[in-house]
Amino acid sequence: MGLVKRGSLWWMSFMFNGQQVRRSTETSDRRLAEAILGKVKVQIVEGRFFEKQDVQERTLAELLDRYACEHAARRANHRRELTSIQNLTGFFGNPKLDHITPKLIVAYKNKRYTDGVKPATINRELATLKKAFNLARREWEWCTDNPVCRVSMERENNTRDRWLTVEEEQRLLQAVSPRLRDVIVFALNTGMRMGEILALTWAGVDLFRRTVTVFRSKNGEPSRSTQPCLMS
Fold it and tell me: Does the first or last residue of the chain, that is N or C, have fewer Cβ atoms within 10 Å of its Cβ?
């Protein structure tokens, strides 16, 4: 194991498991290069050098690209994940993984708030980054830390207090196609989502009690609508 000067920088050159390894010390100072070499020797003996080197060489673009191909592509919310990846890349660029710090992630959150983005959207984007780092840490062995875990998620306000007025309902029903009118009326009177209505079967309809049961709601739990069902 020794030092070799290339241009203005000193490089480390040594054998490991029968293979020649070369790493730049990123300095032109001989004494500093020797100090770095000594530290590397200790890390190699302790088995920590190559583990550290991987996180120093892998980039965020590599992380998100692999995540998109191997994980996000199999998810139902694939397009939303790709949008999150695009927003993350637009802010962070393509730094090495060890340059992604909690402080930088907080700066990302602040920037997204400045852009007028809601807390729920920010949380989804952070969740994408968090899942990518988890895969890199647990399965790909690219890093040993997930910086997103040290950043708090945003508090979401999911309450909905905006209701259509009678005049707005009338204008809506006048504007829709006649073939969709019954569906719109049903939605207005039950508060059910379009996906829940389209998935509704006769097994969930009780004409006597004028109720419908949603067997699979958005949160995965069955729920019952007790609003009057306007059916003839």
Answer: C
